[in-house]
Amino acid sequence: MPNLIAQKDQAERIAQVLKAVAHPLRLRIVSVLVKRDVRVGELAELLGEKQAIVSQQLRILRMSGLVEVVKEHGAMHYCLAEPRLCKLVGCFENDNDAPL
Fold it and tell me: Any bridge partners for residue 95, and if so which?
């Protein structure tokens, strides 16, 4: 783990990642992508949200470098580009009873 006191650049990058996932829907999207790659329509259905809204949030995650699009067999799938998000999501999913 980096020493954030001494590493200003690293602290700034981590803050940018946290800003990118600091939206309830984006956090839920990342939570799905931690488990598997998915198409935007399937993601919208899983989350009970409109596809256009999910697409907007995916764009923000892509611009932040956290999510990427992979074309496979003619279909576009979204997947995590930042594997450390698995640990972040895991912290919250595995500790539901702990107050924040």
Answer: none
Exposed, middle or buried by CB within 10 Å (0-12, 13-18, 19+), for 33? buried
Distances in Å between the Cα of 80 and the Cα atoms of 6, 7, 46, 69, 98 are: 28, 25, 17, 9, 26
Average pLDDT of span 35-50: 96
In the CATH hierarchy, which top-level class contains the domain 8-90? mainly alpha
Annotate 18-80 with DSSP letters as a single string: HHHH-SHHHHHHHHHHHH--B-HHHHHHHHT--HHHHHHHHHHHHHTTSEEEEEETTEEEEEE
How far apart CA 91 and CA 26 sit, in angstroms, is: 16
Q: Using one digit for the tens of pLDDT, what is the confidence trace for 44-99? A: 999 999 999 999 999 999 999 999 999 988 889 999 999 889 988 888 777 666 55
